[in-house]
Write a structure and sequence with these properties.
This protein has 109 residues and is an alpha+beta fold. It contains 2 helices and 5 strands; from the N terminus they run H-E-E-E-H-E-E. The chain has a 5-stranded antiparallel beta sheet, with helices on one face. The N and C termini lie far apart (34 Å). Bound molecules: adenosine monophosphate and zinc ion (ZN).
Length: 109
Amino acid sequence: MSDCLFCKIITGDIPSDKVYEDADVYAFKDIHPKAPTHVLVIPKQHIDTFADCEDPALLGMLLDRVRTIADDVLNLQAGYRIVIKVREGGGQEVFHLHAHILGGKKLPF
Ligand code: AMP
Ligand code: ZN
């Protein structure tokens, strides 16, 4: 998806503050953080939105990486929140599947 913002972040065509990368995912700091720690984890494979993903293994992989990044990279042992917005009704603005990791303080509802 050549016109996808997050695909361009993966390739480095758009700069980002990377916190983790492996063969399957890329993770970087959200440009408008909503918590002291706010990181986005995206699969390298372009998928528009959670509801369109037909690959359960990819969803499992994504959540597994979220957990690894939260624990081992971001040191969020106190806890954190995972948010996946789905389509416009869920508030999704960037249509490349991504999980938000929010932490670093006790989060209000
Ligand atoms: P969503 O509302 O779930 O689609 O989340 C999109 C997120 O991407 C928002 O929290 C934005 O602040 C964030 N964002 C947009 N552009 C960038 C960028 N260039 N670098 C880092 N985060 C971004
Ligand atoms: Zn993309």
